[in-house]
Amino acid sequence: xxxxxxxxxxxxxxxxxxxxxxxxxxxxxxxxxxxxxxxxxxxxxxxxxxxxxxxxxxxxxxxxxxxxxxxxxxxxxxxxxxxxxxxxxxxxxxxxxxxxxxxxxxxxxxxxxxxxxxxxxxxxxxxxxxxxxxxxxxxxxxxxxxxxxxxxxxxxxxxxxxxxxxxxxxxxxxxxxxxxxxxxxxxxxxxxxxxxxxxxxxxxxxxxxxxxxxxxxxxxxxxxxxxxxxxxxxxxxxxxxxxxxxxxxxxxxxxxxxxxxxxxxxxxxxxxxxxxxxxxxxxxxxxxxxxxxxxxxxxxxxxxxxxxxxxxxxxxxxxxxxxxxxxxxxxxxxxxxxxxxxxxxxxxxxxxxxxxxxxxxxxxxxxxxxxxxxxxxxxxxxxxxxxxxxxxxxxxxxxxxxxxxxxxxxxxxxxxxxxxxxxxxxxxxxxxxxxxxxxxxxxxxxxxxxxxxxxxxxxxxxxxxxxxxxxxxxxxxxxxxxxxxxxxxxxxxxxxxxxxxxxxxxxxxxxxxxxxxxxxxxxxxxxxxxxxxxxxx
Length: 537
Ligand code: GLC
What we know:
Layout: H1 4-7, E1 21-25, H2 27-30, H3 41-46, H4 48-54, E2 58-61, E3 65-66, E4 78-82, H5 89-101, E5 105-110, H6 120-126, E6 140-141, E7 164-166, E8 177-179, H7 194-210, E9 214-217, H8 257-269, E10 275-279, H9 285-289, E11 299-301, H10 304-307, H11 312-326, E12 335-336, H12 345-348, H13 352-368, E13 373-376, H14 396-400, H15 445-449, H16 455-468, E14 477-480, E15 486-491, E16 497-501, E17 507-508, E18 514-517, E19 527-528, E20 532-536
Parallel strand pairs: 1-2, 1-13, 2-5, 5-9, 9-10, 10-11, 12-13
Antiparallel strand pairs: 3-4, 6-8, 7-8, 14-15, 15-16, 16-20, 17-19, 18-20
Helix pairs in contact: 7-8, 13-16
The structure holds alpha-D-glucopyranose (GLC).
């Protein structure tokens, strides 16, 4: 076996991630090489040329570890192996080596808050009596009320319903309850147990030694729980699968979580040029800032831009808060408008032609901002959310919300690559894991590649400029006055100006030479039409 460092992408740049364009590969839906209708690691490897052409710097691979797939891989039964659905460790090693050869880095998901209920630890926990060391790796409690028949507190699961499930006792008395902030098949780990800490360290080193460039940490504001597990002030009845928290919520952001991030950082610091980015759903800027202190996460996702509606004031507010939250920390702000849990931007911004125009405009806004940016696979093609029939829905959110919330699969439909009918080159089989819409031929990569007006071409040009043009240097922004419904900012050092028009009338362009626009500009080049963004120098 080669030494770990040989496998790692050679680079003198320890902080390559500070302005990297990351591309999130939802592995199930990217490309299927095995022909079972589900995307896999070999599929990703076969499409690395595309990612290089697109011009991204790094990939984030969603979980490909052993899993019963109740939450499509976020329920892990063995974090140190590849699920046969996606390949094996050899395929992973080949993918990583090939990506590195092309100059693409790879970060992978780390899911420390919970395991699968099929993990050997949880299997052992249910096979042993209350009080056993096996149970102490999870959060087991006796129930309340008569005969312990009520859950230990009022916490609800992010996916809907109570956050507690009761075990059936073989001896006839009331079984204990275990905590799961997500599906019952995802029991929460007990982070006060040193065994849990040691196991995560093992997982970190396992993948770092294989050469991964870092981790995206799932539910990075979860893990630690407050002493005594106090009730939620306002339990939320149905789940959405998204983790927005607007109220003081005892389920997340407990102080103890920062010790865990310090531990993770310590391990990462032993390896050169690695990065940890946390999924941090906290709405308070100060609370966010604590996650990116110098000895914690390198960077954190904040979701303000993703949550902002297509209104200049909201977008500006999101940008300002994101910058404010990292002020005084070594971390740059991190930008994203999309991921595998959210409705696709085209649909979120209104759908149809207007939705697409707005999504393209917001892509230019996010790519104009200083700091790392995360693009979600398929957004570069301008894909809308797909409408799926009830029978196709597999997301636990659908069932757990009492069939009131359709879940997150509309943004997880496999990617169209070529040809005029499903599966559009995604897979050798037409039986893809989610049905692909019959009218997606025009979205296919092949159909967009040579078309200069396509969304794919826009993203390629934007990424190339962002990487190569010196207007994009520097980390500070200054804002310009702008007409109602518009915003304009300038990268102070490099001089790039980005203007966005979210109003319904054309406005005059800021002065400067147009580098790129998200849609056609009028021939005299003096106006910025509605639903359009522009880059100028
Ligand atoms: C994160 C993931 C989401 C998953 C949840 C539970 O929010 O992004 O897809 O369902 O964590 O692991």
